[in-house]
Amino acid sequence: MTETSARKLVEQRNRLMARGYPADDLSDERVQALVDLRESYDWGCAFDAALVRGYTYRKDGADLGGIDAVVRIVAADEGVNDEMDWIGVFEMADGRYLVVRAGCDYTGWDCEASGSHEWYATEAEALSPNTLTVEERTRLGLPAKETT
Hints:
Elements: H1 3-18, H2 28-39, H3 41-52, E1 55-56, E2 70-77, E3 86-92, E4 97-105, E5 108-120, H4 123-127, H5 134-139
Helix pairs in contact: 1-2
């Protein structure tokens, strides 16, 4: 691990601890995933398309927060330009869950891009078959239908 990488891990871990997350819940793997998410050009553009240019199914007036407010990646799958949208379920700093869907054409995010987002109070609601399609659930590694 380079000095820069180690510094980014420490900074991200400190940011999460400042938001009240216990240190024992902040493994290097989890923190590195958040660093990678924030540094990803595609995920940055997907959040921009979904939160800034996108529309909301459930808006309650709270600050949208954006990619910097993600404290945990619940499930995510990268898309492919002009084929599959980027889809992700994220726990946010305020305790809510955000579902992001966004995509772009073959030329990339700067030409034709679109997205949407939805807020949920619980992880179960965000991962529900009522929220995610069968295809989305499959891509995220979830069972196609909820088992009881």
